[in-house]
């Protein structure tokens, strides 16, 4: 079945009498004249009259949970009854019809299939299962095939791209690469070429040594711990000490009170031979040479161009130290000095942020497939989703998956969220030593209550002392630039970013990205670019990127011209129209067709199948993230439909009909129509499929 055939099967019905979930216009107060007036009102986009849908009938989405569907219908129609205080008087006056707004907090998640119904991966690859009959997974391929849903298509993207599909018979496109005997076919020549090239970096192998050391708390964090102790001594000397900068054992290594933070690495190697870290379960590793031999090495290496020095460490303590001339010098090849000589700020890796287009780190929707798509449209800088510091230190697979980087992401950063200096510093060391990245970003702008109440995200802006310690220690432990993403402030009535940003510059931050809204404000107001300009001028010469309400190249040009920002960070604008990066670079409005947008969605699903898998679980995960993205993508209004350009991000359109059926389907705010779009690309949804959008308004359109 072609895509056009699928489209005919999911064609939108706009007739009043069609649709099982439709509600009469009278019950909903549908007024065509009022809707005509709306297009000229503030907050509504101007749509050409010939595209207006004056007969639109709102209806409840088909794939909502039953309880949610009834609740939303009652709220929208005003038929929801008030709760009675007693069972004897159940009949209460009807509530007033409410405007659907807010967030659906308890959203259903897809149920994972039973373990017994899943096929053992050893059997899939034609290997012998070491558990035999005791294996909790199924070994009966014929039984699995009989219960498996029909294949989505006869073409497997993973097999076509890499020459081998690792999911074998479990793949939802298995017809392409599985023969009659259920054997997985391999394109040897293509697979030999692609297997040598690593396209996705920063993958944490669950069986690898790194995760095991993190699980057992045996990772050596001595470098981070010495930096923490050194910074603590510095703060004590300056009179602004905090006794709880870190949780390192107070009986730990002796750090001179007059040492500077920049000298921390010079003493870090001494701690390996000390007994100071016995009480810290996270520091278990090989110990270095004792202080005596180490001091001799330092003295020898500082006199002349001696590459390696071999010193006998068995001399008695009361024996005089031999001179340099009497030492047994051996040239053992090149030896790096990274552990003994700290990089100065001028020697650290530098990035040129000027005039770059920065795709904002976006929770949930800013996944790797979406970032890959934005790179094809011209995004310059990408960043991972927000990763929490504590789960990373614990080696949680789900949190490490956020750090994955595609080879196309040439400037890639990792965003960390946390407020404790010790955990963030150790996490910085962990990333520095194990993750391929170009910079680390501290999340100081997350407004979520769950994050804010822990002291993370926006709360860090109100804790300047802790923020200074955190930044100071992380700049020492990292060899890549440290950036900060923040808001104007916590409260709408009090902006504090202009006071904090110059201090961040002095602390060593390389870049600040400023969202022109406060935590309290959220999206109830437009971004304050006048204030962003004020902060950018106060931060000079440190670059500041502005963020907020950019949806066209004209918006970007205006902000770049009227402010002192060094570049643009784009978040919602990229979710609504990922091709905004192309528009900005080519300085044009792209009247993208519905078929081009469908091809874009197909690329996303292909990237998703490559990322999350082409089996049932992988397809379900790809579908879920596709639906989450469509909750933003439908807000785009085609250029040919608008009366005036450009589209404003705070303007919503009245109901309109597109220039073809697919464009009309893509313009729908009803999540049931998003499910139909997913069925074009990923096949029919299961009978028990449920999807509740994040916002209530999208469940009833």
From TrEMBL:
Listed transmembrane segments: none
Reactions the enzyme catalyzes: a 5,6-dihydrouridine in mRNA + NADP(+) = a uridine in mRNA + NADPH + H(+); 5,6-dihydrouridine(47) in tRNA + NAD(+) = uridine(47) in tRNA + NADH + H(+); 5,6-dihydrouridine(47) in tRNA + NADP(+) = uridine(47) in tRNA + NADPH + H(+); a 5,6-dihydrouridine in mRNA + NAD(+) = a uridine in mRNA + NADH + H(+)
Cofactor(s) essential for the protein: FMN
EC number: 1.3.1.-
Start and end residues of each stretch annotated as Disordered: 15-41, 63-114, 259-301
Assigned keywords, A-Z: Flavoprotein, FMN, Metal-binding, mRNA processing, NAD, NADP, Oxidoreductase, Repeat, tRNA processing, Zinc, Zinc-finger
Biased composition (Basic and acidic residues): 266-278
Zinc finger (C3H1-type) in chain: 114-142, 155-179
Residues in C3H1-type domain copies: 114-142, 155-179
Pfam families named among the record's database cross-references: Dus (PF01207)
Ranges of biased composition (kind: Basic residues): 94-110
Record's keyword annotation contains GTP-binding: no
Molecular function as annotated in GO: flavin adenine dinucleotide binding; RNA binding; tRNA-dihydrouridine47 synthase activity; zinc ion binding
GO biological process: mRNA processing
Function: Catalyzes the synthesis of dihydrouridine, a modified base, in various RNAs, such as tRNAs, mRNAs and some long non-coding RNAs (lncRNAs). Mainly modifies the uridine in position 47 (U47) in the D-loop of most cytoplasmic tRNAs. Also able to mediate the formation of dihydrouridine in some mRNAs, thereby regulating their translation.
Similarity comment text for this entry: Belongs to the dus family. Dus3 subfamily.
Identification of the protein by name: tRNA-dihydrouridine(47) synthase [NAD(P)(+)]
């Amino acid at each position: 079945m072609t895509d056009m055939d699928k489209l005919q099967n999911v064609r939108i019905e706009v007739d009043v009498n069609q649709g099982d979930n439709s509600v009469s216009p009278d019950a909903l107060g549908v007024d065509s004249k009022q809707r005509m007036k709306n297009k000229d009102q503030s907050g509504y986009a101007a749509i050409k009259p010939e595209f207006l849908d004056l007969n639109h009938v709102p209806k409840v989405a088909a794939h909502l949970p039953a309880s949610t569907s009834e609740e939303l219908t009652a709220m929208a129609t005003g038929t929801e009854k008030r709760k009675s205080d007693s069972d004897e008087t159940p009949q209460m006056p009807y509530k007033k019809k409410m405007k659907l707004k807010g967030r659906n907090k308890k959203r259903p998640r897809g149920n994972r299939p039973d373990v017994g119904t899943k096929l053992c991966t050893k059997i899939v690859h034609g290997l012998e299962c070491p558990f035999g009959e005791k294996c909790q997974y199924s070994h009966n391929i014929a039984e699995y095939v009989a219960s498996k849903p029909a294949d989505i298509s006869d073409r497997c993207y993973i097999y076509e791209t890499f020459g081998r599909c690792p999911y074998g018979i479990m793949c939802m496109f298995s017809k392409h690469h599985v023969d009659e005997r259920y054997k997985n076919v391999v394109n040897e020549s293509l697979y030999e070429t692609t297997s040598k090239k690593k396209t996705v970096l920063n993958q944490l192998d669950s069986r690898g040594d790194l995760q095991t050391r993190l699980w057992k708390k045996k990772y050596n964090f001595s470098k981070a711990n010495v930096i923490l102790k050194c910074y603590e001594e510095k703060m004590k000397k300056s009179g602004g000490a905090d006794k709880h900068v870190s949780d390192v054992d107070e009986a730990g290594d002796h750090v001179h009170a007059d040492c500077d933070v920049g000298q921390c690495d010079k003493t870090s190697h001494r701690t390996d031979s000390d007994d100071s870290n016995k009480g810290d379960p996270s520091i278990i590793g090989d110990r270095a040479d004792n202080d005596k031999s180490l001091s001799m090495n330092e003295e020898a290496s500082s006199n002349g161009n001696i590459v390696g020095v071999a010193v006998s460490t068995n001399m008695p303590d009361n024996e005089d130290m031999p001179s340099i001339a009497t030492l047994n010098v051996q040239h053992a090849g090149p030896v790096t000095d990274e552990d003994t000589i700290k990089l100065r700020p001028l020697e650290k890796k530098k990035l040129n942020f000027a005039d770059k287009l920065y795709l904002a780190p976006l929770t949930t929707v800013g996944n790797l497939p979406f970032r890959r798509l934005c790179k094809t449209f011209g995004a310059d800088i990408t960043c991972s989703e927000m990763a929490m510091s504590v789960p990373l230190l614990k080696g949680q697979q789900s949190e490490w998956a956020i750090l994955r980087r595609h080879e196309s992401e040439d400037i890639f950063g990792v965003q960390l969220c946390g407020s404790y200096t010790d955990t963030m510093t150790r996490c910085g060391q962990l990333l520095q030593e194990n993750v391929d990245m170009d910079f680390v970003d501290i999340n100081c702008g997350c407004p979520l209550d769950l994050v804010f109440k822990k002291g993370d995200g926006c709360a860090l802006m109100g804790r300047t002392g802790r923020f200074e310690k955190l930044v100071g220690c992380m700049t020492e432990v990292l060899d890549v630039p440290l950036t900060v993403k923040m808001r104007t402030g916590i409260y709408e009535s009090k902006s504090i970013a202009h006071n904090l940003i110059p201090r961040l510059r002095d602390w060593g931050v390389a870049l600040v990205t400023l969202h022109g809204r406060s935590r309290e404000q959220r999206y109830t107001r437009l971004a304050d670019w006048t204030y962003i300009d004020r902060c950018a001028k106060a931060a000079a010469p440190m670059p500041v990127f502005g963020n907020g309400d950019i949806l066209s190249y004209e918006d970007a040009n205006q902000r770049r011209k009227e402010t002192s920002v060094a570049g643009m960070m784009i978040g919602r604008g990229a979710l609504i129209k990922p091709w905004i990066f192309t528009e900005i670079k080519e300085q044009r409005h792209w009247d993208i067709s519905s078929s081009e947008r469908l091809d874009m969605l197909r690329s996303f699903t292909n990237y998703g199948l490559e990322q999350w898998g082409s089996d049932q679980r992988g397809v379900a995960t790809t579908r879920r993230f596709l639906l989450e993205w469509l909750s933003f993508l439908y807000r785009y209004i085609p250029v040919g439909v608008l009366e005036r350009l450009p589209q404003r991000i705070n303007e919503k359109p009245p109901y309109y009909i597109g220039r073809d059926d697919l464009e009309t389907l893509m313009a729908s705010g009803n999540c049931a129509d998003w499910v139909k779009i997913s069925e074009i690309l990923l096949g029919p949804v299961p009978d028990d499929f449920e999807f509740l959008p994040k916002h209530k308004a999208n469940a009833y359109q």
